[in-house]
Amino acid sequence: MNRPRTLGLVATSAVAALALAACGGSTGGGTNNGGNGKTAAASFNQALTSVVNPSSHKGGTITFDNSSAPDSTDPGNTYYANMWNFTRLYATPLMTYKSCPGKTCGLQLVPGLATAPGQVSKDGLTWTYHIKSGLKFSDGEPITSADIKYAVERTFARDVLPLGPSYFVSLLAPQKPAYLGPYKDKTPGKMGLKAVQTPNATTVVFHLAAPFADFNYVVAIPQTAPVPPKVDLGPNGGAKYQTNPISSGPYMFAPGGYIPNKQFTLVDNPNWVPSMDTEARQLASKIVVNLNVNADKIDSDLLAGNIQMDMAGTGVQTAARAQILSSPSLKAQADNPINGFLWFAYINSKVAPLNNVNCRKAVEFAANKVTLQDAFGGPYAGGDIASTSMPPNILGYQSFDLYNALTKKNGDVASAKAALKACGHPSGFTTNIAFRNDRPKEQAAATALQAALAQVGIKATLKGFPSSNYYGNFAGNTAYVHSHDLGIDFGGWGADFPSPYGWFYYLVDGNAISPAGNTNIGELNDPVVNKLLSQSEAPGTTTAQSASISHQIDMQVMKDAVMLPEVYGKSLLYRSPALTNVYVQAYYGMYNYAVLGTTGK
Question: Is the preceding peptide bond at 117 cis, omega within 30 degrees of 0?
Answer without folding.
Answer: no
